[in-house]
Write a structure and sequence with these properties.
heterodimer; A: VC0802-like; 2 domains; 7 strands; about 35% strand; B: Rossmann fold; GMP Synthetase, Chain A, domain 3; globular
Amino acid sequence: MKIKQISIFLENKQGRLAAVTKLLAEEGVNIRALSIADTSDFGILRLIVNEPDKAYEVLKEQGFTVSMTEVIGVAMSDEPGGLAGVMEILEKRQVNIEYLYAFVGSAYEDALVIFRVENIDDAIKVLQEKGINILKGEEIYAL
Amino acid sequence: MNWNEKYETLPREDLKELQLERLKQTIERSFHDVEHYKKVMQDKGMEPGDISSLDDLSKLPFTTKEDLRDNYPYGMFAVHLSEIVRIHSSSGTTGKPTVVGYTRNDLNTWAELMARSLACGGAGREDVIQNSYGYGLFTGGLGVHYGAERLGASVIPTSGGNTKRQIMIMKDYGTTVLTCTPSYALFMAEVMQEMGIDPKTDLKLKSGIFGAEPWSENMRKEIERKLDISAHDIYGLSEIIGPGVAIECEEKRGLHIFEDHFIPEIINPETGETLPIGEVGELVFTSLTKEALPMIRYRTRDISRLIEEECSCGRTHIRMERVSGRSDDMLIIRGVNVFPSQVESVLLDIGETEPHYKLIVDRIGTLDTLEIQVEVSEALFSDEVRRLEQLEEKIRKEIDTVLGISAKITLVEPKTIERSEGKAKRVFDKRKY
C-alpha cells in the first residue's frame, strides 16, 4: 500500500535538475511522477520511479543527498469533486498532510494523487474504510 | 598633544632602564604569585634571577590564549579576588571565554593610557567625546570611557547601536570626538547622508579614534572625507589591558606603543624565534605594570612590524604598523572575534557528524556580512521544505548565540565545498581593506 518516493536535495542553480534526470536516464530509470518544492536557495525534488531502490543507490553513489520516504498513491475519479472527496475524508479524521502532487497524463483512467502524510498507516486505514482505491507500489512503478 | 609629557618623551636610554626595572619586578611577582608562570619557568630550568637584561626576555616561554583558557577563570591572576575591582571577558572560542581582571592600580594605569591615547588622537578637556564602543564585558566601552573622564573631556556613553539617535546626539550635543569601530563610523556616515545631515556644516566633529577591527589606509581616507575629521587607529587587546596599548599620533605612520607599560616583540609565528626590529611577524607583548594579570610574552596572533625610527611628534615610544593580518584563522566581523572552529562546533551539535561548511565574509556598503554555507548531509536532510527551513533557522540562532552576530545560512549540496589535502579552506574573506 505504500509507495517508495525518492527525495533529492538540490541547490537552486543551473544544471542541477538536469544532472539528476541525465543520471537516471543513463541508468534506465523511468520517472513516473515528480514534484519540486523550492525556496530561493534550494529545492527538493521528489520522484516516483519504476525502480526506486536502484534510483536511490545510483544517486547516492553520485554524491547527491537522497532520502527514501513512503507515500500513498490514491486513485480517484477524474471529474470535479474527485480530490475534494478524498480531502474531506482526511480532514474529518484529522490526517495531517505534509504535501501532495498529481500524476499527469497517465494511462490510468482515474486521476492519481500522491500524498505524503504525517502518519501513513492511519491515513491508509481511514481511506480504505471509505472505499478509496489506494494503489500498491508495484502498480505505480509499472504504470 | 601629550597627556604625559615626561613618560611619552622619555629618552630611550631612560626608557630601557625603566623597562628593565619593571620587567624584573613583573617576572619576580609572576613567578611567586602565579602557579602557571612558576611551572613553565621551572620546566625550562629558569628562575627570576636569570633575567638581568632586556635581551633575556626572549629566553622566557610564551603565554597563549590557551594558557588563559586552561586556567579559567582566575588561575592566571597574581592577586586575591579581594584586590580585583573589575572583571572583563572575551567572547571565547569553542570552549571557555578568557577572563581578565584589574586591580584599582590597573584601572588607574588603563585610564592613564587611554587618556594619553585620546590626547594623542587630538582630544582634550574642552572636547565632547561620544563613545560608541559597546559597554559591557567587551573592554572597548569602559576602557575609552574612563580614559575620557581622566582626560577631563565630556564623555557621552552612547555605546553601540541606535544609529539615528547617535547622530541626533552628535548634532545636538556638539560632539567633537567620536570613538567606535571604523566600520561603524562609515555606517554612521551613510545614515547621516540618508538623514540629510552634512558633517561639514551640521556637526562639530573634528577627530575620531577607531579600533577593535582591522582597517586600511583607504578606509581611513574614506572616513576622513565623509565625516570631515582626522581618523586615528588605536590598538589594544583585553589580555594586555584593553584599548590603549598603542595609538597613532598626528603623523599617522604607525602606532606608538606605550613602552613604559609594555614591551613589544616581533616573532616568527612558525618557529617562535624573535625577529629583528623592522621585520614582519607576530606581535608579542609583555606587561610591565599590570598587577592582577601580568602577561609574559603574550602571543597576540596579530601580524605587524615595529618601526624604530624617531617620530616627528616627539614621542620616543616605538611604533607598530597597523595590524595587517592574523597568524591564526580568527576573523573580525563587525568588531566581533570569530573563529571557524566556533561555527564547526555549532554544526557538530546540530548534525552529529563532521560538518562541511564554508564561511564567506564580505562587506556590503559599510557593514560586514557573514554567510555560512553548510552541506546538507543525509543526517540533516528532510524531504520537507519546512524542516529544512527550520534547520537553517536553528543554525542561525545557535550561531547568533555563540558568536553574537547574525549570519545568513545557506544549505548547499554535498561536495560543493572543495576538499583539499590536509586542511580545508573554509574561510573566504572578500572584504577589501
